Amino acid sequence: MWLKILTAIAMPLVVAAAVGALLVKTHHTKVPALSLPAIPSPAPSSSAKGPSPTLTAFENACRGKIPMPFAGIAVDDAIGQRVTAFHKMTGARIRVVEFYNPFPGKFQTHQAQQATEIGALPLIQLNPRKITMADVVAGRYDNRIKSYASAVKAFGCHVVLSFGHEMNGWWYPWGRPNTQPSAFIAAWRHIHDLFAAEGATNVIWSWDPSHQYAEFKAGKVASLAREWYPGDNYVNWVGLDGYLNPGQNFKMVFARQLASIASVARSKPLYLAETGVAPNVHEVSQIDDLFAGIKRNHIGGLIWFDQNAKQKWKLQGRTAAAAEYRKLVASFP
After folding, report:
1. d(Cα 53, Cα 64) in Å, to the nearest integer?
2. What is the CATH number of the domain that holds 207?
């Protein structure tokens, strides 16, 4: 609804002039100041059926401005419907919607629109499953990266991009032993610089390591996050992925990597980019502990993994767990 209203009152020539001046002035992809003269209005998506945001919520999400601590969810399809269902179940005001795309590939405008239209920031995990970091740095995919950057720029609203999440683990080809930290960092910086050259200033770069940091078993070794950090000039946010399985608490899962991250990224907003609590007899107390850890460590938000993978992370059908989440997330803005 708000997109149609905003489109009707937009002043394209004024917006174009103002944005052009901003790009000439900045020349890089830091998060721009939140005082743009008008909010771009992507065309409404016919597949978005989520809750209608207020005008203020839409404007803030489009500008990349969300309150902290924030609640978000990670989904694999049907963004509007999934956000609606999660909101009804938990009462959470969803500020970030996370989804996953292959890299290199095309910018999925329709997915980003669905998130923006419900007043949320799109967080896109770019997964480089079939390429090498050396080929990225060598420029083999430059044209495709530039095309993606141009599409993001044309989208107008802010998006959060994360390249090769959980890079410090062993389970993805962009982690060890296939990829060394220096190669990953060089690829990240190369991609970032191509976006800067295209003037895509509406990108928030989120670096998202895993909580794993040691040898899980023979041949499966994770490392400290700080080894993979691209540098303050290339990162806007830091996300940390980690889940509470039976018998675990916040400190056991997150403390070691939080310390590692703090040693290299002291000034960056930090949030849990993927998290959840597995079903078990102590899940309610674990959810309590998760939220307490977020507050205690001044973490800016959490994105619940609203999918079932190795564990049934979804809260659907978990009455007590959903009720506890609802009670605790009610304090979030």
Report:
1. 15
2. 3.20.20.80
